[in-house]
Please model this.
Amino acid sequence: MNPLKLFGNGRRRERSRDSAGAQRHTVTSGEVDVSHGPILYLENVTVSFDGFKALNELTLYIDDGELRCIIGPNGAGKTTMMDVITGKTRPDSGTAFFGQTMDLTRMSEYEIASAGIGRKFQKPTVFPRHTVFENLELAMRADKRVWPSLWARLDGEQRDRIAEVLETVMLSDQQTLRAAELSHGQKQWLEIGMLLMQDPRVLLVDEPIAGMTHQETEHTAELLISLAGSRSVVVVEHDMAFVRSIARKVTVLHEGHVLAEGNMDEVQNHPSVIEVYLGS
Amino acid sequence: MPNKGLLLRILEHDTGGKIFLSLLAVAAVLVSVLNLTVPEASALHVSTYTVTLLGKYLCYALLAVALDLVWGYCGILSLGHAAFFALGGYCMGMYLMRQIGERGVYGNPELPDFMVFLNWTELPWYWFGFDQFWFAMLMVVLVPGVLALVFGWFAFRSRVTGVYLSIITQALTFALMLAFFRNEMGFGGNNGLTDFKEILGFNLQSDATRVGLFLMSALTLAVAYFVARYVVNSKLGRVVVAVRDAEDRARFIGYKVESFKLWIFVFSAMLAGIAGALYVPQVGIINPSEFSPLNSIELVVWVAVGGRGTLYGALLGALLVNFAKTYFTGALPEVWLFALGALFVVVTLFLPHGLVGLLKRRRKKAALKEAPT
Model:
């Protein structure tokens, strides 16, 4: 194995940052401009890994405040799409904008997160050695630069906010436990709780109900539905029953581009979706 | 004392730290008194040799705390931390060299002996200012700090992690060693800097100065421990641990991970520099072998043996391993390296959390036994 390959990731990022060139500061911080309706604009986004096109001219708009479900077979590009939105992967071509003004392809991961895009990973990712409370504290919307963190103290309002989210994700009794000791479903919730603490405008939620019991699943569905409206929620999920229970609008991805879009019934009766899912 | 509340608050949940700092205070006073007031003939007398040896251990303990901050808390396994220690030591050494003045072998008031020997006629520019104690002390933290800043900035920004980062840090200290071996560098080549006479006007050979340096080491270690404990207890400390455990998650909740790594790395390098500066006047010499990669690896062994990610574990490890080293290199010199190697293997295999982890496990078991089921 070529050890330099492991450095490759960093290099590729650098190159794309350089190619952004002189005008990389078209990024404007502050409020997200959603005056035209959509909050996320992906246009003609292509990402390829060693010749394989994970995303192929993907064009997708997410409206402000909507709850969108994204489905598709394995390898359809769902996770890659989230990687592009959160800055983990840079597209080879195409544009990704947050509101009218923020160019996501020129922002780093932490800038995107601070701007208001939160993400839940497919595999629940929490800080295992921190307590549930500390996990939420770390995620809380606050000044996240180095020096302010050194002097940061929780005030009453912030404690209330954490207590409130603990309540929402039903982890109040577990708040002093280390996150590693939680069950799989509880970890999923903790991660959703961390998303809520960030107070994002857009939540990207990758397979939220994997490993959850029936009741937990129901609760998650209620939670996601209640979040939509005040913020946009994008859910990637395999479980069709779950998607049906929450979805207003569904997008089907296939081989890196949008195959069909519409409400659940429209999508399920779409001839090319039937072909992809059932074979011809 | 108005600060007492603050100090106690910092140590609130740190039983190990409380025990260590109390022992340190008692030992510091006891050793000083037994050295200075008890006559040499008495069995209770502590020799100046022992005082200096203990002072040296305390410097190592401080270095171990510094490494624990980056390795134990941030997961950056630096195999070149002795480089920062040596750089701090060289800064102190340069000050001590300038203090020799006309008392050198060649009697040159301006140039250290080795420069006269090399037929240099004037002091290189980078030696200016080192006749001032305050300037030298500033450099003790700035030089390691700036090196760590530049090195860390490149390494963390390019997202070099894990074993690759360790190898690069090892290369860093090795490169510095080779550079300092060269006479043209102006740091005394392979002889390094030695023959020191006095520090701030106090004779370095006198018992009182030796005790003073030992007490300074103890005090510095205690202060550094408090500061380090404050840092790891702060939100910054929690972010650093978060970066260690789930770097991507930390990034996606909005932390600029590189900056946090860089901060803790630079802070740690500065502590290491201070440890080196306290070490040099006590051992009386600093030479390029301090940059030797083996030193940095030994340092990692101390922290691993004690138990990383606790601060006091690093302290304990540094003291124990060095006591053992002093004993074995005296009693069975040929065995020491094997013993050190075996120690590392045993700790890695059986005590992943070091001795502190072992104690904690014991306590937990005892607590379980006591609790009615």
Summary: Chain B has a mean pLDDT of 92. The first strand of chain B starts at residue 193 and ends at 194. Residues 38 and 45 of chain B are 5 Å apart (CA to CA).
